[in-house]
Specification:
- The chain is an all-alpha fold and 240 residues long.
- It has two domains: 175 residues, no CATH class; 51 residues, no CATH class.
- Helix content is 70%, strand content 0%.
- The protein has twelve helices and no strands.
- Helix 1 runs parallel beside helix 3 and helix 7 packs parallel to helix 9.
- The longest helix is centred in the N-terminal third of the chain and has 31 residues.
- The radius of gyration is 20 Å and the shape is globular.
- 31% of the residues are buried.
């Protein structure tokens, strides 16, 4: 029941919310599976074992960061490059997380941090819709995230086994799938001509660093910093 005027009902965390989140996330698994297959195939092509690939998917659970890191994988692996790549790609969550404040601000301990561990774009978007509907059951995010996490691990395993059978050569069109996903993600982010300068700055910087430091992931971080910094300066220069 709604609370008194000017107040909101308390945030709960129940099994019902957990199950609702899991059910609502099932349709999104269809879109997640191809991405996880690419992650598995890429991990196999880079020489990881099945256990290592599953541990990576289970502990990192960040498709974009995983695929970009695997794309620049070296033997021995560069811990600094992998860490900075993951950090740079996942900075977006610093902006996404606060929008879930109506739930997260009222959760404590494992309920909050466990839910955040499973935070990806899919369950984030679902949770925002639930918050807009007035749902006050914070377990929804964890339920949706758990369902997507299981699907991601299963898809990674399937992709790894597929990679052993197909054994695609370096440069195979299959490995372009990840880049294609990122390109399509840019489309809804475009807000008009004002975004052109930061995008050009990010792309130009990334290309220069890629040429100067081939075989590394520093161009990703450099491009992100250049684009973000240019966008910040652009916004500061706007009147009002």
């Amino acid at each position: 029941m709604p609370g008194s005027p000017g107040t909101e009902p308390p945030v709960s965390f129940t099994g019902a919310g957990l199950l609702l989140g899991a059910r609502r996330s099932v349709p999104l698994v269809i879109g997640l599976v191809p991405f996880s297959l690419v992650a598995g195939v890429t991990a196999q092509a880079q020489g990881l074992s099945l256990l290592e690939a599953l541990l990576m998917s289970g502990l990192v659970f960040a498709g974009s960061a995983q695929i970009l890191t695997l794309g620049a994988w070296t033997v021995p692996a560069s811990l600094a490059a992998a860490t900075l790549t993951t950090f740079g790609v996942n900075l977006r969550f610093a902006l996404m997380g606060p929008l879930l404040g109506p739930w997260l601000d009222h959760l404590r301990g494992w309920r909050r941090w466990g839910s955040l561990f499973f935070l990806v774009e899919h369950d984030w978007a679902l949770s925002l819709k639930e918050i807009e509907r007035g749902n006050r059951n914070g377990a929804f995010l964890l339920g949706a995230g758990l369902c997507l996490w299981v699907a991601w691990i299963v898809g990674t395993a399937a992709g790894f086994l597929l990679g052993e059978v197909v054994a695609p050569a370096p440069g195979h069109p299959l490995f372009f799938a990840a880049l294609a996903v990122f390109i399509t993600m840019l489309v809804p982010m475009w807000r008009g001509r004002s975004d052109l300068l930061p995008w050009v700055a990010a792309a130009a910087t990334a290309l220069v660093v890629w040429r100067l430091l081939p075989g590394t992931s520093w161009h990703i971080l450099a491009g992100a910093i250049a684009g973000g910094g240019t966008g910040y300066l652009r916004d500061r220069a706007r009147p009002g």
